[in-house]
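User: What would this chain look like folded?
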Amino acid sequence: MSDGVASPRHRAAPLRAVSSPHLVTGCALDIPIDPVLLAHLERAAAVELLYVHVPFLEDLDTAAFAPVYDAVHTTTVETLQGFVEDLNCAYGIARWPADDYLVWLADTVDAPMRPMLDPDELAVACGIVLRQAIARRVNHPVIDERLDELTVARAAVPFAPEQPAERRFARTLRRAQQAACDPLAQKKQEAVRTLDRAITARAFHFHYQPIVDVLSGRPMAHEALVRGTTDPLRFPDVIFGTAERCGYVWDLGRCLREILADDLASDLVAPGKAGEGLVFMNVHPSDLEDPVFLEQAISGPLAPHASRIVIELTERAAIADYRRVKAIFSTLRRHGFRLAIDDLGAGYAGLTALAELEPEFIKFDMGLVRDLHTQPVKRRLIQRMNEFAGEIGAQTISEGVECVQERDALLEIGCRHMQGYYFARPARPPSQVPPSCFTPVQAAKTGS
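Assistant: Here's the prediction, encoded as structure tokens.
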């Protein structure tokens, strides 16, 4: 396992300080760096840093808690040594700066680091092992209460031959330290790992909510609303919010469209009578920039169901290039897909999207629908938009209907297509709409 560098299986040892001139100011930086690590960096080895943050150690550094402090320290060092030994790499462990720990890991020439863990899972696994070992070997109530405060962050030292190794090490160390000590950064790292695992496992499914034609007394479509099968990714706001923050919108969208295609192929939402088999599929505006979006739609698993699918463009982000988006929907329409503008009157869903994209369906935001029967301004606004929709050949759908008064107020101004808890909640398989939701309307139509 020797690679010409002193003792590749490096023991835990203190790091020495090396001075290096700062690139901009020229001032000296005291960068603690192990000479063995320095040699690995200079020969372009793959080097990872693990920063272990143990905030409760400072509170234990008293005479009364000395045995507990020593036990935590000993357990941490021994556990870290055991953990990195299993990775089959050169390593070093040091206290940093007083109550935290720094671990570096490096490939050796004849023994590359064992690919037993995804790099992004390395810190998570290390943290789990450390917390379990300390809980098992250090029996004290203070430890039991604060063990979750122990965090581990990972950062890879970039290979940049034009930059001194000390500077690359210092910058990487700073990133790892900030991540370990910043709860928000830790939460984001965990969110990335959670979402990535969920997408890989396809840990999502759809609940379907009826969109009803109140005058005919039956559903005219269903909206597919994503649900996660694992915490914390249970509901759409959390799922899509996490994907946006972590840069996973495309990956999530591809996964969800495959899952929806499976549902459509299984007839979970049966076509039924003419006009009843439409399924509204939510699409994030960023999905339209995905280079495989069109291919997945027109020649992938969704293609056989195109005539049933209404692409519901969500309001989660603004559309930057309407010309490009219009061209995309022109292609989609040629293959049978239709378009709905979601939540008109909220977020980014505005008149520009309506004018540029000419959707087949326009969905009124639930904020406009709420208490419509008591607010004349809302009533007049929806009435005018509904009339305009009819003039351009679009159908309207009023979202968020929760009571009979809202239903009747919408009917009075000519809005017949509705969606909301008053009729049915999202469910898998879809719930039947109770006949009582239509009875007064039907009675009025027949004159009984």
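Confidence is low (pLDDT under 50) at residues 1-31, 113-117. If you want, I can go into more detail on any region.
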